[in-house]
Structure prediction request, 257 residues.
Amino acid sequence: MNLNLTNKVAIVTGASRGIGRSIAEVLAQEGMHLVLAARSQDRLQELAQSCPAKAIIFAADLREEPAPQRLIELAVQTFGRIDCLVNNAGATRRGDFLQLTEMDWHDGFALKFYSSVRCSRAAWPYLVKTQGSIINIVGVGGRTGSAEFSIGGAVNAALLNLTKVLADRGIHDGVRVNAINPGAITTNRLQTRIQKLAGDNEITVAAAVAQMAKELDIKRFGKPGEIAPAVAFLASEKSNYCQGAILDIDGGQTKTL
Prediction:
């Protein structure tokens, strides 16, 4: 399928690894120019050099309030336009609700939620000009709460609501806003959880993988490359009638409506 994304411009936050890196690679393969944002300059530089289309990097901590505005300004100064913003940055701490600190909560919202708010607000006028799109990479924890994921669940739920809010505004301004909820995807974070489970229960990593998949009631874990094509679709004109859509890519983990 020709998505007609050649020479369009996308910003991808959290692009240095995992899902974000895979998204950047697929968008580059579709011919998009990229602005890659994350904290790791070395990883971003390596990724940018491997992209077939033009890619520049923005190495910064998006938890810092001025950083999202500077990211958007860099994109416009370099390419003159923005067609797509992929809000992917952010990780939250798991743990016992009673043991999580105020700092844990502030940090959880600072990167994943507030950076998405600030990036979206700064990019909005440019997306109006191009009739572009915002794609929020959220997570299934926003739909189904669990005791060990209180911060992540709250942050994700807020980001899903923000998706609907911006989509409502986008109807009038011509900006498409949609979200993807990845389930258990084989990123470094998931590998760390698997290894901890194996160590705590004195079982093999393979046994831990099987146990966690069974607990989640899924056949297997997903791969970053299974999220990225959906992002490319939502960035393209093929998804013109998707507005405020929330796509669960989770192997059937989410059972609720």
Remarks:
- Residues 102-130 form the longest helix (29 residues).
- Residues 9-185+223-249 form a domain with the Rossmann fold fold (CATH 3.40.50.720).
- DSSP finds eight helices and seven strands in the chain.
